[in-house]
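Researcher: I'd like a candidate sequence for this fold, 178 residues long. If you have to choose between options at a position, lean toward the conservative one.
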């Protein structure tokens, strides 16, 4: 039986207070970014796992179905899928539920998308979508368990650090009880 495991992690919060236009060209004809309205739990958890498994993303894997479904069906939560040749290779989630701010709640690439120059381009595209509602700020959080270039990518895209703190993050959930 697997044991729940937590690890102390440095969590960094970044924000952008003014829109910054996308600077990177579209990578090619085979790429698409599509909003998926109210994705099924199975599809969402597939995206979450394929993008986040290596970076210890577990919160949404262990979240009760009803709670996750409430988030994903909320009209102010958007899931955008990056695909190449029709195959999902990344996703981003925008959370507009807070007044005057948009959180890029989840963002990342599948392993086959990493190292190809797509991360910054996709982040710019998600950021542009976040600013469509003219919030006062767009923000994101990352931690030292994330991809080694994640923080630098956010900063290079124009986000600025506004807080850091230590948090005990769940990295291995307990096995469900029988």
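Model: Candidate sequence:
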């Amino acid at each position: 039986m697997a044991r729940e495991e937590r690890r102390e992690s440095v969590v960094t919060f970044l924000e952008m207070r003014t829109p910054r236009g996308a600077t990177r060209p579209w990578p090619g004809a085979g790429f698409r970014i599509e909003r998926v309205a109210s994705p099924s739990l199975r599809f969402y958890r597939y995206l979450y796992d394929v993008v986040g498994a290596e970076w210890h993303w577990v919160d949404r894997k262990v979240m009760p179905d009803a709670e996750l479904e409430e988030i994903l069906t909320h009209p102010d939560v958007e899931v955008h899928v990056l695909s190449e040749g029709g195959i999902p290779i990344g996703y981003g989630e925008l959370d507009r539920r807070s007044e005057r701010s948009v959180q890029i709640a989840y963002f990342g690439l599948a392993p086959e998308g990493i190292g190809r120059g797509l991360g910054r381009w996709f982040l710019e595209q998600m950021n542009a979508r976040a600013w469509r509602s003219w919030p006062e700020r767009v923000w994101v959080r990352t931690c030292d368990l994330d991809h080694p270039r994640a923080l630098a990518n956010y900063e290079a895209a124009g986000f600025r650090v506004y807080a850091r703190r230590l948090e005990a993050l769940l990295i291995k959930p307990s096995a469900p009880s029988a």
